[in-house]
Write a structure and sequence with these properties.
The complex is a heterodimer of chains A (345) and B (440).
Chain A: H1 2-20, E1 28-31, H2 36-49, E2 56-58, H3 62-69, E3 80-83, H4 89-97, E4 103-118, E5 125-126, H5 128-135, E6 138-141, E7 144-147, H6 153-156, E8 167-170, H7 175-191, H8 194-201, H9 206-214, E9 222-225, H10 229-238, E10 243-247, H11 248-252, E11 258-260, E12 262-263, H12 270-274, E13 281-289, H13 299-306, H14 309-312, H15 317-321, E14 324-325, H16 329-337
Parallel strand pairs in A: 1-2, 1-3, 5-12, 8-9, 8-10
Antiparallel strand pairs in A: 3-13, 4-10, 4-11, 4-13, 4-14, 6-7
Helix pairs in contact in A: 5-7, 8-9
Chain B: H1 11-49, E1 54-63, H2 66-69, H3 77-80, H4 85-102, H5 111-115, H6 121-132, E2 140-146, H7 149-155, H8 161-166, H9 172-183, E3 187-191, H10 194-197, H11 212-243, H12 248-261, H13 265-279, H14 287-311, H15 315-323, H16 328-356, H17 360-364, E4 369-370, E5 378-379, E6 383-384, H18 392-400, H19 406-436
The chains are: A alpha/beta (345), B mainly alpha (440).
């Protein structure tokens, strides 16, 4: 027994010492769960077609990914951060403080945000104003701010069926929520004239008025989903009155279970988003640590491959999965090829 | 005061008997509820997951034209590698169309859509085969190729003609043709070994996703846990139980060990991130770090069970050894430890089983990731167990988040695999206890 123990302990110590000077030959990516499927599709194709190992792609959210990205330079930090929003100045400062000074921003395309309900339920043709009226915490009624009284869609818009309001929207940790608030709720607030009314009521403070506009009701009519779209889908299957907020790609993979609502009479599709007709979309990014380009084999090739026409172009596998390809893809390709960093832009 | 016969029960005895009967009924009820919960869990998991162990393949003969696959004409691998899997897709499409025509089937589907009946993984299968055997270029080779996830779902009952009509990724015509191909014997469903051996796959090819990397990662982590936790845990328990003086310090240590056993596992993940990755600079996502974190988590369990089994050895054994002149150490290692071994092993296996199913700490050290490369046990670059990997429970978590409905089946299949591993480990623990345990 004692010899066994001795061997085991020696092995353990050897394991730790042997690893302390580790080097890495694969690309490591982390970040947004919206970008994750695209990144893993590209990683898979990259591993298949190049002699480099398949990159490791982690999820965890845009903010978490950028935080890890900004931890420093070196093999023990990630090479690429995926984000469903632009990097913030605060994050760039944090990066700089940790020695990550050269960041390459790559826009891979656009993601549409769609509203969908159970396939056998009622169909809807929304406008941002409908969503604002249905989900705002407080509405201006008869010149005063009161708690949102609407409980059924026909109260929001007489054209709608008398279906109880039940919305499943992304939780605040999701990048999608920000887009939803800005492009739907705030747009609806302006459209209905409520923004001006609230600004008038609160003494001309437009910033505060926007905050009031974007406050979502918390009486249970709107439920924050902190998990993934799979959870939203499960909630809608359980409550057929529910209307959920999804990414276009998720909807396109589940068209047999969901029916999509139009927004301002535009049906969401990769075409209508690319043309700019469908209003609710956002760009997706990834950020490369330029200092790693010479350190990690395959990083430059991976980035080039990701934005190549074969992959991110309108006929590529990413578009097939639901990404709206960037009309200015050629510019993005130059940015990646020349490793143009944020500061130099 | 009247004396009644012992044979007739009085009111008090009846009450006592009734309360005993009630207690038995409660106990039985509790067991029934537990068994029902287990039955519901198992039926739902097996119901959705069993189909993951079967997969639909098409046996197709694929012509491999030299003009497309080898522009050099001399089988120069560097030139041949320039043809990507996207390029191979058109060759596969031609093979598939030929197979449909060869079987004499009529269809309105476009050639492009017929090509899409094959999984995207199929082009990789053919490409890898061609690059490994360059001499086959210019000939025709018969492959067993994966069929796409929707058609696979149709043969498993997940996709129906009605749902296909609404589904933008498939169509009733496609399913009809698939059924005809199946009747012609070209498409068949067989046992899915790849599910246990293949690596993960992206959202576009659920049919290709497997548990290979996850099983390997879990195995490596269990080796690390076993090699570290068993000797450390046993040494600590022997010292505490047999040698340490009983004073306030050992009391403090004892309380702390029991406390650590109840600490939420995510805390160990935070610790692992801070110490093993940020301070010691071990590789992220590596089974070594995962194993170290799980070792910390399993140690208290092993120490507690080892101490319990050491305690259960009667003092007479120790006294007899000391009485014939053995030293304290000889009495422990020659007599107490061998007798306690079955209990220690059982505790260790149960600790390992717990570690095998643990997800939370692995979230923080980067093991919840898309990993397709099989991790090597040792490489000079990455060290021992240093290559990125996932683990079984993490793979379940990962798959439940995917958009494609095909992954629901995969996730349940992974749960079944994990349950089988846990069952085997616990069965070994019970077997060892039954076989070697001594009672006094």
């Amino acid at each position: 027994m004692s010899t066994l123990k001795l061997t085991a302990s020696t092995l353990a110590i050897a394991a730790i010492t042997a690893t302390s000077a580790a080097a890495r030959d694969n690309v490591q990516v982390a970040g947004s769960s919206t970008v994750l499927p695209y990144a893993s599709i590209v990683a898979e194709l990259f591993g298949e077609n190049f002699d480099y190992p398949t990159p490791v792609v982690e999820s965890g959210g845009s903010s978490a990914g950028l935080k890890r990205f900004c931890e420093g330079v070196g093999e023990n930090t990630i090479d690429i951060a995926n984000a469903s929003r632009k990097i913030k100045d605060k994050e760039i400062d944090a990066c700089n403080a940790a020695g990550v000074t050269d960041i390459i921003e790559v826009r891979i395309g656009y993601d549409g945000i769609v509203f969908a309900s159970e396939i056998n339920g009622n169909g809807f043709a929304f406008t941002p104003a409908d969503w604002y009226t249905a989900l705002a915490a407080e509405l201006v009624i008869d010149g005063a701010l009161v708690a949102n009284p609407h409980t059924s869609w026909d109260q929001v818009n007489p054209d709608f069926p008398a279906q109880p309001i039940q919305a499943f929207i992304p939780g605040t940790k999701h990048g999608t929520r920000e887009v939803f608030e800005e492009k739907v709720i705030l747009a609806g607030c302006e459209e209905t004239g409520a923004l001006d009314a609230i600004t008038g009521l609160n003494g001309g403070d437009e910033h505060a008025a926007e905050g009031t506009c974007m406050a979502i009701r918390t009486d249970g009519r709107s439920v924050d989903i902190d998990g993934d779209y799979t959870e939203t889908l499960a909630r809608i299957e359980a409550d057929t009155n529910g209307i959920g907020v999804f990414g276009l790609a998720f909807y396109e993979n589940n068209t047999d279970k969901l029916q999509v609502a139009t927004m301002s009479d535009v049906v969401p599709s990769t075409e209508s988003i690319a043309s700019g007709d469908y209003p609710v979309s956002r760009p997706l990014y990834f950020y490369i640590k330029a200092a790693h380009l010479d350190l990690i084999p395959g990083l430059q090739d991976f980035a080039d491959f990701f934005v190549s026409d074969d992959i991110a172009g309108p006929d590529g596998p990413l578009a097939e999965y639901g990404l709206v390809s960037d009309p200015d893809l050629a510019d993005v390709q130059t940015t990646v090829a020349d490793a143009v960093t944020l500061d130099a832009m | 005061m009247t004396h009644k016969s012992l044979l007739t029960t009085d009111a008090r005895t009846k009450r006592r008997n009734a309360s005993e009967a009630r207690f038995k009924a409660y106990g039985l009820g509790a067991i029934v509820v537990a068994m029902l919960a287990l039955a519901v869990l198992l039926t739902s998991v097996i119901g959705t997951g069993a189909s993951a162990f079967k997969q639909t393949y098409a046996t197709v003969s694929i012509p491999l034209p030299e003009a497309k696959l080898d522009k050099s004409g001399v089988r120069d691998l560097d030139v041949m590698k320039k043809v990507t899997t996207i390029g191979y897709a058109s060759i596969l499409q031609a093979g598939m169309v030929a197979a449909v025509e060869g079987a004499g089937l009529q269809t309105d589907m476009k050639a492009k859509d017929i090509g899409k009946m094959l999984s995207k993984e199929a082009s990789a299968t053919v490409r890898n085969y061609v690059l490994a055997n360059p001499e086959v270029v210019g000939t025709e080779v018969t492959f067993d190729l994966l069929i796409n996830g929707r058609i696979d779902g149709y043969f498993k009952g997940r996709v129906t003609m009605e749902s296909a009509a609404l589904d933008s990724n498939t169509s009733p015509e496609e399913l009809k043709l698939a059924q005809q191909l199946a009747d012609a014997g070209i498409v068949q469903t067989k046992f899915n070994w790849a599910f246990l051996t293949a690596p993960d796959a992206s959202d576009q090819r659920p049919e290709a996703a497997g548990l290979g990397v996850a099983i390997l990662g879990s195995l490596y982590m269990m080796i690390v846990v076993l090699v570290l936790a068993l000797p450390i845990g046993v040494a600590a328990s022997i010292y505490l139980e047999e040698f340490a003086p009983k004073n306030r310090w050992t009391d403090v240590i004892e309380v702390n060990i029991s406390n650590l056993a109840a600490v939420p596992s995510i805390v160990y993940g935070i610790l692992g991130l801070a110490i093993f990755i940020n301070f010691m600079e071990l590789n992220q996502s590596s089974p070594l770090v995962g194993g170290l974190v799980l070792t910390l988590m399993t140690l208290p369990t092993i120490i507690i069970s080892t101490r319990a089994s050491l305690k259960s050895i009667p003092p007479s054994i120790r006294d007899a050894a000391l009485g014939v002149g053995a030293s304290k150490m000889q009495s422990v290692f020659h007599h107490v430890l061998p007798l306690a071994a079955p209990g220690i092993l059982t505790g260790t296996i149960i600790g390992l089983a717990q570690a095998l199913g643990e997800t939370a700490p692995l979230l923080l050290i980067g093991m919840v990731a898309f990993v397709r490369e099989y991790p090597a046990a040792y490489t000079p670059d990455a060290g021992l167990f240093g290559e990125a990997s996932t683990a079984l429970p993490v793979q379940v978590f990962n798959w439940t988040q995917r958009a494609d409905p095909g992954f629901v089946e995969r996730a349940s299949g992974a749960i079944i695999t994990l349950l089988i591993f846990l069952l085997i480990m616990n069965a070994i623990a019970i077997f060892l206890r039954r076989k070697f345990e001594r009672r006094w």
